[in-house]
């Protein structure tokens, strides 16, 4: 079966964490199918341009199936250029696809809506199945984050576009489990007099490629006195250090640990971003010496780093979208490490709670986080190991090998639920 997977912001594993379509392609190929992935040439949240000449499309050489970059401009410093790049990707994709054979299935991932629109239009053109993958709730996210006022008339146009996409796709895949809840709350289901048949709404979460994770853990390690120190309880955060991530909340929890006189707990933070220098200065000026900033680290080292932790920590900004569930790439790598996870945000259909592989304290403040960290540190070895084993159970459930099988099941059946 020929399956096209379209997502402008997807990227090969060595360049970042947005690998969902890459991983689908990898395992669909092993299952005997013929996947082709199309992504943007300017890699999202980086400064990397994969097409440096006038070519419209370029094949990536390190995949055993066709994986193509489609030309877009560099947009890292401009929101207007980013919007332009969305239309550029859409137009260049349609041009490039004229030389490809007809597919059986097209999946467009709505990292932005134009990829979804492309899947629907191309599905009608080729008479094949169109699937829209919903990663973000556009434009609901704009409202939740205060980007657009609920009173803005533009919002009605955006909601109408979203509803058109959901209506015209043959099938919908939400990466968050509450996709059906969202459509029903909007009043868009056919049972409510709306245009969307709720039976075509499905869910495939994000996950982790366990094969790659285990390989990297075993083959990409390094000596680090902080990671190797067995006398301390190591708490690890790996990710961006930007305003939206609010790593200050983790630093504040570390400060509370310091205040109560516990010296054998260390917070090790991997990653970079605009807030890093401020936080390093803040820690120095306030004597918070139990936080260590390691800076950017190549993604291939993350599995080894996480395997050396005692507790992994997730922070997420509170907003009304959390009730629909979450599909954080980082969380599944944390699961794969076989160590418990502490989260300060309870999501709908919360996986940490479901698999009992950590602790969730909704909207936790620094004092509450510190108290729970101490509790986990003092936990009996039996209870701690149970959380560790549950983490691995969750990771296996969301291994991309299994997720690709779920995708095939959805493709082959009208209603696999």
SSE layout and pairings?
Blueprint: E1 2-6, H1 20-30, E2 34-40, E3 57-59, E4 67-70, H2 79-96, E5 105-109, H3 113-126, E6 129-134, H4 140-144, H5 154-168, E7 171-174, H6 179-186, E8 201-203, H7 210-219, H8 225-228, E9 233-238, H9 248-259, E10 265-270, H10 276-285, E11 291-295, H11 302-307, E12 311-314, H12 329-336, E13 341-343, H13 351-355, E14 358-360, H14 366-377, H15 381-397, H16 400-412
Parallel strand pairs: 1-2, 1-5, 2-4, 5-6, 6-7, 7-8, 9-10, 9-12, 10-11, 12-13, 13-14
Antiparallel strand pairs: 3-4
Polypeptide structure, described:
It contains 16 helices and 14 strands. The protein has helices at 20-30, 79-96, 113-126, 140-144, 154-168, 179-186, 210-219, 225-228, 248-259, 276-285, 302-307, 329-336, 351-355, 366-377, 381-397, 400-412; strands at residues 2-6, 34-40, 57-59, 67-70, 105-109, 129-134, 171-174, 201-203, 233-238, 265-270, 291-295, 311-314, 341-343, 358-360. The radius of gyration is 22 Å and the shape is globular. The two termini are 22 Å apart.
């Amino acid at each position: 079966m020929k399956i096209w997977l379209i997502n402008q912001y997807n990227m090969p594993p060595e360049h970042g964490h947005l690998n969902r379509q890459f991983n689908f392609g990898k395992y669909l190929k092993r299952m005997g199918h013929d996947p082709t992935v199309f992504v943007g040439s300017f890699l999202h949240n980086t400064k990397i341009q994969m097409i440096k000449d006038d070519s419209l499309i370029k094949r990536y050489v390190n995949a055993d199936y066709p994986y193509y970059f489609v030309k877009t401009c560099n947009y890292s410093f401009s929101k207007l250029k980013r919007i332009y790049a969305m239309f550029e990707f859409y137009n260049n994709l349609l041009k490039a696809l004229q030389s490809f054979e007809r597919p059986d299935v097209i999946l467009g991932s709505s990292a932005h809506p134009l990829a979804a629109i492309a899947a629907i239009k191309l599905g009608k053109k080729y008479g094949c199945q169109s699937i829209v993958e919903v990663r973000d709730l556009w434009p609901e996210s704009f409202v939740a984050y205060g980007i657009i006022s609920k009173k803005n008339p533009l919002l009605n146009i955006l909601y109408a576009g979203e509803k058109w996409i959901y209506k015209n796709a043959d099938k919908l895949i939400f990466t968050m489990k509450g996709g059906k809840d969202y459509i029903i709350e909007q009043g868009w289901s056919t049972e409510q007099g709306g245009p969307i048949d709720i039976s075509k709404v499905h869910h495939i979460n994000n996950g982790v490629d366990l094969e790659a994770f285990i390989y990297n853990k075993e083959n990409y390690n390094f000596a680090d006195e902080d990671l190797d120190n067995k006398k301390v309880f190591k708490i690890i955060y790996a990710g961006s250090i930007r305003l939206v991530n609010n790593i200050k909340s983790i630093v504040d929890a570390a400060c509370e640990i310091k205040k109560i006189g516990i010296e054998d707990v260390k917070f090790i933070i991997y990653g970079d971003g605009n807030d890093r220098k401020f936080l390093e200065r803040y820690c120095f000026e306030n004597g918070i010496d139990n936080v260590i900033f390691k800076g950017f680290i190549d993604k291939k080292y993350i599995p080894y780093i996480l395997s050396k932790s005692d507790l992994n920590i997730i922070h997420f900004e509170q907003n009304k979208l959390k009730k629909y569930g979450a599909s954080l790439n980082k969380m599944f790598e944390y699961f794969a490490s076989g160590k418990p996870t502490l989260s300060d945000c309870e999501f709908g259909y919360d996986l940490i709670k479901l698999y009992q592989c950590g602790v969730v304290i909704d909207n936790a403040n620094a004092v509450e986080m510190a108290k729970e960290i101490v509790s986990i540190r003092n936990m009996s070895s039996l209870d701690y190991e149970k959380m560790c084993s549950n983490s691995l159970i969750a990771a296996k459930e969301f291994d991309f090998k299994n997720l690709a099988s779920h995708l095939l099941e959805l493709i082959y059946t009208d209603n696999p639920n």
